[in-house]
Design goal:
The complex is a heterodimer of chains A (about 500) and B (about 425).
Chain A (H helix, E strand, L loop, with lengths): L18 H17 L8 E6 L1 H9 L10 H15 L8 E4 L4 E6 L4 H21 L1 H6 L5 H19 L1 H13 L18 H14 L18 H10 L7 H8 L5 H44 L5 H14 L15 H17 L3 H6 L10 H10 L2 H8 L2 H7 L2 E6 L4 E7 L5 H11 L2 H4 L2 E7 L7 E6 L8 H15 L3 E6 L6 E7 L4
Parallel strand pairs in A: 1-3, 7-8
Antiparallel strand pairs in A: 2-3, 4-5, 6-7, 8-9
Helix pairs in contact in A: 1-4, 1-11, 2-3, 4-11, 6-7, 6-11, 7-11, 7-20, 10-11, 11-12, 11-13, 16-18
Chain B lengths: L1 E4 L9 H10 L1 H14 L2 H4 L3 E6 L15 E6 L10 E3 L21 E6 L1 H8 L11 E3 L6 E8 L9 H14 L5 H14 L6 H20 L10 E7 L2 E3 L1 E8 L6 H21 L3 E8 L3 E4 L1 H6 L8 H15 L6 E8 L7 H16 L2 E7 L16 H11 L4 E6 L2 H12 L2 H8 L1
Parallel strand pairs in B: 10-11, 10-13, 13-14, 14-15
Antiparallel strand pairs in B: 2-5, 6-9, 7-8, 11-12
The chains are: A alpha/beta (about 500), B alpha/beta (about 425).
């Protein structure tokens, strides 16, 4: 090998970096991101952290400041044990959906890795956070850091006042229901910044309000209540309610104000993460595509050396590796792989469409520059709808997708569709469904409260395709739910077609 | 765009979470620590290390679908399948249907992580204590407790008593007739009002003179004077401390094999770690004996070799001497642990018993005897080996009600359980027996 010759155009040479190197890399990436890709992003803040701090960040779901709970300690211990043994590496970066956008990069990264990470997180993810519709509507990037600060302080204060154990009981129960702490369908404007003031206003309001649950009128026989009354009661309690935590926060009869607030904090955090679950594949695809484009452009302009590009490509290819289903390494579809493949495929359709592409995607096939199409896709879709809209037959063939139907009643699995003319649409629908949280999570709602009787809370699981709940864990979660509700809880698993009850779980609160 | 260097931020941000986790999983971790410590060397017991606890105890449950019903899988990498093909259901979840990820990550049933030395020891020694630590005395040099004791004129700003200072200031101002600001303002207002009115020059002059006096007075008499300032005073109150001494008596005579000495030393190492960690005011006296006994330092006790005959009474005699010299039983809680293979010179048993009963035991809160033996030692065929001389001697004492405990240790594995039994908290031990 020749000794590296200092070349004037290069951003950096070798593996070492300092702050001015990072600054140059950032500025060069920004130039390409704005000029060539037309990205629109929050201002960046890049923070350099050590491996231990990265483990810390892992343990608190990637958030820079988070309230205290034993489960985060458990995750830390688990990650640490794996990391120390060398069984698992650490992520190169973590990025936070906030304004300014925070990217954590590891000090061990080489200069090339830092360039990759900056292009990936500080521009790719950043653009996605700022522009994607779900993020715009459901999260408040400006307020999140302040809110987390408030949440951390509030929970620490509660621990001081009521004891760690008491707070932990509420948090444990709320965490068990975290997936049911999200409004999925009707949107609300989120403004986390004024949460703190609203805490006080809410309490004052609640005290003035008459709580139907505390009605102590003489009991009437249950059958005397007409259907009318049931409807009225359900309307009053805003039932049915898919957001179980919201319902508990508002209506659980025996919670102290601070317990309601803790539930609210868990709910707000769940809501903040909800868009990430729905857009994981696109988000990673967008970031991966962006870093790929930026680094290649920088190389073409002579600002990145050949060696650096090869190093970046090495990391890039291992990130987008997709093992086949029968490979021992297979653990589901790699969101980086599918995401990046889809973005590249859209680029191909825009630049060099085939006849098939023109037929499937008349809107943008052959449009030339892929960026307008991609930016539109990144801003208006989520994983499920993005696949329905943009997954092409070409890519289905390339990934060799096939659709297996697994009916527990049958002795064998059946190949329902594959990557051929007859299968494309069915295959695409089936794949999209896998990315729909509404389909993947059991559909559970609060449907009623037995107000005239023992205040029993009644929930319903609308069973889809005969998939019942895992019984033991369901009972554990219900115990947590009963703990918050303070009275009996009943979960009915119901066949939505016939309304027949398939199975029931009844749990009483701990005495 | 900003670049921040966070590497210098204090580390251990997750420590509170870790402590909460350990508290939460305490009974599980403690069990794991016991299991781990039974398997390992005592020296490494002092180092912490990896433990494994069952996952189900610390699970975070959530609703998810169980098995059964209809499922769809879209999988990549089709090789030979055609639409309508039927595939045998793979056993054990591997292969074709394996796109289901368990939420806990791979469905492990055990959870492994690393404990630090501190955590390991505190969990290991958690429910151990010296029995009957009753005699408390005021000791010089022990940390005193600080109590509030009135006010003083000197102190640090953080101890400034604002209320008391302002009270002094107020009474001084009243006593010295410092004009109130309102009085001065009233004068000034009156002057301003009269100003320019005919025939009021005299009155104005008088008022002005008055005002000048008042102003001068308020300048001379400060709002807060150094003599007003008071600080909260704290007084050290000596705390009674339980002082304790542990005598470690070890037989190093020729009849003790290297294995036995090793066992005895391991036992004392554990005892040493326990005392060092749990009791600040514990002295440890090391005595080893062959046919003669000597007090030695820690280093010699644990590391040097010596051999000779066996006279157990010499060790007790030495201990008696040390107690008489330095540890008056009225002031000290005295403990002793003796390790031996149970051999004693013929004719010494009587003397040993007498010394123990008359001199040593009355001074002691607790006396533990550990008899070490070889693993699997059942005696030679035809020579059934009964209890040793010393064991028989001590057994008589115990049955006569002497405050001592006896245990046999045959194997490294026994050391931890025996140690735990000897020093378990009384309440716990009785519960366990009940």
């Amino acid at each position: 090998m020749n000794a590296p010759v200092s070349t004037p155009g290069l951003l950096y040479e070798g593996a070492d970096w300092d702050f001015s190197t990072l600054m140059r890399i950032h500025d060069a990436c920004e130039e390409v991101a704005v000029r060539d890709l037309g990205l629109d992003f929050y201002p960046n803040r890049i923070e350099i952290i050590s491996a231990e701090q990265m483990l810390d960040a892992y343990a608190s779901t990637g958030l820079p400041l988070f309230y205290r709970h034993w489960s985060f300690g458990k995750q830390f211990a688990q990650h640490e044990a794996l990391y120390r043994k060398g069984l698992r590496g650490l992520a190169y970066e973590i990025v936070i959906n906030s304004d300014p956008c925070l990217s954590y990069v590891m000090e061990e990264n080489t200069a090339t890795l830092q360039a990759l990470v900056i292009a990936h997180a500080a521009f790719g993810h950043n653009h996605f956070f700022k522009n994607n519709r779900i993020f715009r509507e459901w999260t408040d990037a400006k307020g999140i850091l302040d809110y987390l600060e408030f949440a951390k302080g509030y929970i620490a204060e509660c621990e001081d006042k009521y004891g760690e154990i008491a707070v932990e009981r509420v948090l444990d129960s709320a965490h068990a229901l975290m997936n049911y702490g999200v409004h999925r369908h009707h949107r609300r404007t989120i403004d986390l910044r004024s949460e703190e003031q609203r805490v006080r206003e809410r309490r004052a309001h609640d005290e003035r309000m008459y709580n139907v649950l505390w009605s102590t009128l003489p009991e009437r026989a249950s059958q005397a209540i007409g259907a009318d009354e049931v409807e009225k009661r359900r309307a009053m309690l805003q039932l049915p309610q898919e957001n179980v935590l919201y319902f508990l926060e508002k209506s659980a009869p025996r919670l102290a104000p601070w317990q309601r607030e803790v539930i609210r904090i868990v709910r707000n955090v769940a809501q903040y993460f909800h868009p990430q679950r729905q857009t994981k594949m696109m988000n990673e695809g967008c970031a991966t595509y962006v870093h790929h484009r930026i680094l290649n452009t920088l190389h073409a302009e002579g600002r990145l050396s050949d060696g650096a590009l090869l190093e970046a490509l090495h990391s890039h290819t291992s990130v987008i590796m997709q093992p086949d289903f029968d490979d021992p390494r297979y653990s589901g579809i790699n969101p980086y792989a599918l995401g990046f493949a889809m973005m590249e495929d859209i680029e191909r359709i825009c630049r060099e469409p085939t006849e098939e592409d023109r037929e499937w995607f008349p809107d943008f096939a052959g449009s030339g520059d892929p960026m307008p199409t991609l930016r539109y896709g990144w801003s208006e879709f989520r994983d499920e709808s993005f696949i329905l809209q943009f997954l092409s037959p070409h890519l289905m063939r390339k990934m060799k997708f096939f659709h297996l139907k697994d009916d527990a009643a049958q002795p064998v699995l059946r190949v329902d569709a594959m990557h051929d003319e007859r299968g494309y649409r069915r295959l695409r629908r089936a794949l999209a469904k896998q990315y729909d949280p509404a389909w993947m999570d059991p559909d559970i709602q609060v449907v009623d409260v037995d107000l005239s009787g023992d205040r029993r809370l009644i929930l319903e699981h609308r069973v889809q395709d005969g998939r019942l709940l895992e019984e033991q864990e369901a009972r554990q979660v219900l115990r947590h739910l009963a703990n918050l509700w303070s009275y009996d809880v009943l979960l009915r698993e119901v066949d939505p077609a016939t309304g027949a009850s398939l199975r029931e779980h009844a749990v009483s609160p701990p005495r | 765009m900003q670049i921040l260097d966070r590497r210098l931020n204090p580390s251990g941000r997750s420590l509170p979470n870790r402590q909460r986790f350990l508290r939460r999983a305490k009974s599980l971790v403690q069990e794991a620590v016991r299991d781990a410590s039974a398997k390992r060397d005592i020296r490494s017991a002092d180092e912490g290390g990896e433990v494994s606890i069952p996952l189900h105890g610390i699970r975070e449950p959530s609703f998810h679908h169980g098995s059964g019903g209809m499922r769809d899988h879209v999988l990549p990498g089709n090789k030979e399948y055609r639409e309508g093909d039927e595939i045998q259901r793979p056993q054990g979840g591997g292969g074709g249907g394996g796109s289901e990820g368990s939420p806990e990550g791979g469905g492990e049933d055990a959870f492994r992580f690393v404990l630090t030395r501190e955590e390991f020891l505190s969990l290991f020694l958690d429910d151990l204590e010296l029995p009957d630590l009753a005699k408390r005395r005021l000791v010089e040099g022990a940390d005193p407790a600080w109590h509030r004791a009135g006010y003083s004129v000197a102190g640090t700003p953080s101890n400034l008593s604002l209320a008391r200072t302002m009270r002094n200031s107020l009474s001084r101002r009243i006593a010295l007739k410092r004009p109130k600001p309102e009085a001065v303002a009233a004068l000034e207002a009156e002057i301003a009002e009269l100003e320019g009115q005919p025939g009021s020059e005299e009155r104005i002059a008088a008022l002005k003179a008055e005002l000048a006096v008042q102003l001068k007075r308020s300048q001379r008499i400060p709002w807060i004077d150094p003599i007003d300032v008071r600080y909260r005073r704290f007084e050290p109150v000596p705390r009674p401390v339980a002082r304790a001494v542990m005598f470690c008596l070890m037989d190093v005579s020729g009849s003790m094999t290297e294995d036995m000495k090793d066992l005895a030393k391991r036992f004392y190492t554990l005892l040493y770690i326990f005392l060092q960690r749990r009791y600040k005011h514990v002295d440890i006296v090391f005595i080893r004996h062959t046919h003669e006994a000597a007090e030695v330092d820690e280093q010699t006790f644990f590391h040097s070799r010596e051999t000779g005959g066996t006279l157990v009474s010499t060790a007790l005699e030495e201990m008696r001497k040390v107690v008489a010299d330095r540890y008056p039983p009225t002031d000290w809680n005295i403990y002793a642990a003796q390790a031996s293979d149970g051999d004693n010179a013929a004719g010494d048993s009587q003397r040993t018993a007498r010394l123990l009963i008359d001199e040593v035991l009355p001074a002691c809160q607790y006396y533990a005897y550990i008899e070490v033996g070889r693993d699997g030692e059942h005696g030679m065929p035809g020579f059934p080996r009964g209890p040793t001389d010393l064991w028989r001697t001590y057994e008589q004492l115990v049955s006569a009600g002497a405050p001592m405990a006896m245990k046999k240790v045959r194997n490294r594995r026994d050391i931890f359980p025996v140690f735990r039994e000897l020093f378990a908290k009384r309440g716990l031990l009785e519960e366990a027996k009940a």
